[in-house]
Amino acid sequence: MNSDPSSINRRDFLAKTVAGVSAGIVLGAPSILRANGEGGSDQIRVALVGMGKQGRVLFEAMSNIPGIHFQAVCDIWDYNLKGGMAKVRALQGHTPKGYIDIDEMLATEKGLDAVIVSTPDFWHSPHTVKCLEAGLHVYCEKMMSNTIDGARAMVRAMEKSGKLCQIGHQRRSNPRYRYVLEELIKGQKICGQIVNINAQWNRAVSSSQDIAYNPKLTIKQDILTKYGYQSMQQFMNWRTYRSLSGGPISDLGAHQIDIFGWFLGAAPKSVYASGGNDFFKNREHFDNVMAIFEYDTPQGGVRAFYQVLTTTSAGGGYYESFMGTEGNIRISEQSAYTSIYREDSAPSWDSLVERGYLKRKPAPPKPEPAPGVIASYASAAAEGFELPGELSKQPHQCHLENFFLAVRGKAKLTCDARHAFESEAPIYWVNPSALSKLPIQFTPEQLSV
Amino acid sequence: MKIKLTISTIFALSTFAFFSCEKKAETASTAPESATAAPATAGATTGMPLKTEFPPELIEGTPKPMNLPNLVAAPTKPPEFLAAEGTALLSKGKKVTSSDENPIIGDLTLITDGDKDAGEGYFVELLDGTQWIQIDLEKSSALSALWLWHFHSQKRAYHDVIIQVSDDSEFKTGVTTVYNNDYDESSKLGKGSHNPYAESRFGIVADAKGAKGRYVRLYSKGNTSNDMNHYIEVEVYGKEL
């Protein structure tokens, strides 16, 4: 794995990007925003491609970022298109131009600087490549593509065009994650040697149902066919189809497996996965997937277990646990799922608490010993701690801020297409391992562009 | 807009910054799991049970936190409400107007069309901030109850749910407030005594206690997932005068 782009002067970088201080540190060669022809405004002119659920989430996050002018909206569904245009109108006071077809949009719209791509996964690569080749910066949702070759094409297009391409692994710009990595794991080494990782994203059946739609709004079949969908049902539920997406392991798992490699600074050497249709019998993709990745790091071997279950919320939501010889950090986008524990045998963390690195959790009451129990082989309960701060921003906002700062030439992307590819490449091999019921020992070719 | 982002703390110990945002009286200690009892509905002690059709449950995605004080949990069974004999649904197909004349998603007819399904194409989305919708019952009526579904394909709670009844279409005179959970008076329509509640497919029944009027106005001010205002369906029950 290549070095993390933000590992160079990470502290300075973070202080001046995540905190929003715009002192000019320019890492790499981002494009400098050109002034538009209407009075020299330095607004970044943006087109929104894909205004479904995720497109709306990103728009809401961007609505809190100053200096953006939404110039055009593109979506094949009239319902999404009109809704997206109305959201822009509500925010900016004018109605942007709307398009069904991205090619028409790129041919017509002049002066665009950047495009936000939040279309279904199988369109990510074609749309991103088109926009990069048109000379535009791109923020594209993860997973980069439904195929590893699609992801490779995005990296090549980014590097050939010289334009920016941020992939939507938004945890990479989240100050809570960056704090845990830089200050706690690397700086204070509170985990000791990380020996295992355990992560999950478990959703209840009730939260994993097919997405419903009003039949009055059905897209005409010729349009659906033109854009790669067999039916309106498939259009609405593209995440469950093998030809359109990678399924839950890429839809949900990619966010978290990305953290494994980022925090360890290493790519896995193998994966062994299992999956099945345990509840949703008619879905093409597995509804439950479990995978074990093995890593070699300078500190030693690490095994990482990951499960994504769309059939139960048991197990306490979604998080990533980095389990070390001295401490365990369980982190999540939701602070309620985040906790830090010190091994009983580890050196005291009192000084870390005094200096504000950690907050101590209230100690749980000691359980009474069960009658007749003389001795226990269980370890003493680990001491609990919390992060000293909260992030109440919408979680995508920091990542989008990083993108727009980079467009302005004031930051380097925290997750450009090449680094995203290095993170995502092993994920493309999870479903093949589960289907073949065989472990896969990665070759350099499997994980490279 | 209800949410104002501010940089609250920059940790001296490191170069990392954490942000906080100022939201409507949020409390970090009140997680959805700790929410209290099911919505309380009163109504008469005798009479006819109010009945309606419920949409199927359809929840999308991972739930977001609902950090509100005294949050009433989503019910697991339909609310029970006794209305006076002869009570009827008065709002079906009636005209709806709004403070947001050009809804962002959907249109205002969806609110009284009788369709309560979750999913795309069944709800109307209004602008952020305090917004209202208003149903014209066409005749002054004595109201028993209002049954309300904001949005139920995601566990969320709406801020400042206020329901008023009046014979004045501009709500300047003769206004009766029958429901108000604006506990911090952020919409400046009076402080409410009802608790915030989590949305569900069962909706919520507000006791109108016989309030009289031709027009029903419902306010809200965003929700725990985003700043926008949504309605799937509103049913107004009562008797024409």
Short description:
With 449 residues, chain A is of the alpha/beta class. Chain A has 15 helices and 16 strands.
What this model shows, in words?
The complex is a heterodimer of chains A (449) and B (241). Chain A is of the alpha/beta class and 449 residues long. Chain A folds into two domains: 5-173 and 396-420, NAD(P)-binding Rossmann-like Domain (Rossmann fold, 3-Layer(aba) Sandwich); 175-388 and 424-441, 2-Layer Sandwich (Dihydrodipicolinate Reductase, domain 2), CATH 3.30.360. In chain A, 31% of the residues lie in helices and 20% in strands. Chain A has helices at 10-17, 53-62, 78-92, 102-108, 121-133, 148-161, 175-187, 221-226, 232-236, 248-251, 253-264, 350-354, 397-407, 417-424, 430-436, and strands at 44-49, 68-74, 97-99, 114-117, 137-140, 165-167, 194-202, 268-276, 288-297, 300-309, 318-324, 327-331, 339-342, 359-360, 383-386, 440-441. Chain A has a ten-stranded mixed β-sheet with strand order 14-15-13-12-11-7-10-9-8-16. In chain A, strands 3-2-1-4-5-6 form a six-stranded parallel β-sheet, with helices on both faces. In chain A, strand 12 (327-331) and strand 13 form a beta hairpin. In chain A, helix 5 (121-133) packs parallel to helix 6 (148-161). The longest helix of chain A is centred in the N-terminal third of the chain and has 15 residues, at 78-92. Chain A is globular and about 75 Å long. The termini of chain A are close together. Chain B has 241 residues and is an all-beta fold. Chain B has a domain at 74-240: Sandwich (Jelly Rolls). Chain B has no helices and 14 strands. In chain B, strands 5, 6, 8, 9, 10, 11, 12 and 14 form an eight-stranded antiparallel β-sheet that branches. In chain B, strands 1-2 form a two-stranded antiparallel ribbon. Mean pLDDT of chain B is 85; it is low at 1-23 and 25-40. The chains are: A alpha/beta (449), B mainly beta (241).
